[in-house]
Amino acid sequence: MFKALVYVTLKESVLDPQGNAVKDSLHSLGFNEAADVRIGKYMELEIDLDDKSQAEQRVTEMCEKLLANTVIEDYRFELIEG
Amino acid sequence: MFKALVYVTLKESVLDPQGNAVKDSLHSLGFNEAADVRIGKYMELEIDLDDKSQAEQRVTEMCEKLLANTVIEDYRFELIEG
Lengths: 82, 82
Known about the structure:
Two copies of one chain form a homodimer.
Chain A (H helix, E strand, L loop, with lengths): L1 E9 L6 H12 L5 E14 L4 H16 L5 E9 L1
Antiparallel strand pairs in A: 1-2, 1-3
C-alpha cells in the first residue's frame, strides 16, 4: 500500500486567470506583497500495490491518462509507503 | 523574496465527491488499485518580503482569510527562499 501525493501545475507558458483573480483578491485585502499566484491541483491517492516501481509506473499512467492534461499541465508525484 | 507553496486539503471528516468521481473514473479506466482519492488545491505564491518570520505570518493570514475555508479545509505551507 502506498500513498501517492500528486501535484499538477499549469505549464510556465500558460496563462493562469484563476491565479490572477486570487492575486487581485489578495491585493484588495491588503496583501500587496503577493507578487504572483499560480493555482494547481493536489491529489492524495491510496494505491493498493506492494511493489514500489510498479506503483510508480501505474501512477505515471494515471497522470498521463486522467489526472493531468499534459498539453497545458505538468505533474509530479511522490510515493509514501504505508 | 520567498516562494510559498500552499497545500489546501479537505478535512478528514468531510466527504469528497470530486475525489470519488475521480476514483470511479480511474476504476473505469482499469486502475483498480486506486483505493481512495482526495482532491485538494496547490498554490504557488511569490511573496515580496525579505523577513522569513514576517512572510510566514502574512501567508498564514492569507490562508485564514482567503486561500482556505477553515471550516472544512486544512492548510499547510512551506517557504522557499529566492
